[in-house]
Prior knowledge:
The protein is α+β, with helices and mostly antiparallel strands. The chain has 2 domains: 1-112, Orthogonal Bundle (hpI Integrase, Chain A), CATH 1.10.443; 118-174, no CATH class. Helix content is 45%, strand content 11%. It has 7 helices and 5 strands, in the order αβββββαααααα. It has helices spanning 3-7, 54-73, 96-109, 119-130, 135-142, 147-154, 162-173, and strands spanning 14-15, 22-25, 28-32, 35-39, 48-51. A hairpin with a 6-residue loop joins strand 1 and strand 2 (22-25). It is elongated. The mean pLDDT is 94.
Amino acid sequence: MRRGELLGLQWSDIDLDAASPVLRVERSVEETRAGLRLKSPKTKRGRRNITLPPVAVTMLRAHKVKQMEQRPLLGQGTIKPDTLVFASFEDKLLSPDNLSRDWCRARKARKLPDVAFHALRHTHASVLIAAGENILTISRRLGHDKPSVTLDTYGHLMTGSDATAAKAIEELRK
């Protein structure tokens, strides 16, 4: 997900109890001269559903429990459907730039490699390509408007050779 999409998530966008838990990308946080605001995702295909792996479900459940404990202490009451998943202590939108800054601090404190927050999105795509996932699925998960955008960005990671292609054609003759 893009930074703004992550920060625009509301709890009503996430179904942790479904047979295949899913997260719906419905909006994004944008930083303007006038301040932060919610807007539609970057592309036409930006509104999308992303099936969550079990590790993400576990982390989101733990985050929700922590948020449910903290909100009353901060005078914010219970979680409602439009409650932001990631918000400031004042229950306000977070800045995408501040997310990147906080990521950098956390990364340095944990002595992790020098990787920008956005690189996690690229890692996600690269892992899916290495696992042999089809380009259309990857494109949809990333919210690219067209699969050609995904291919232009990640095509160099596609493995396979012309010899493999020739072998596949040869197999048709059998």
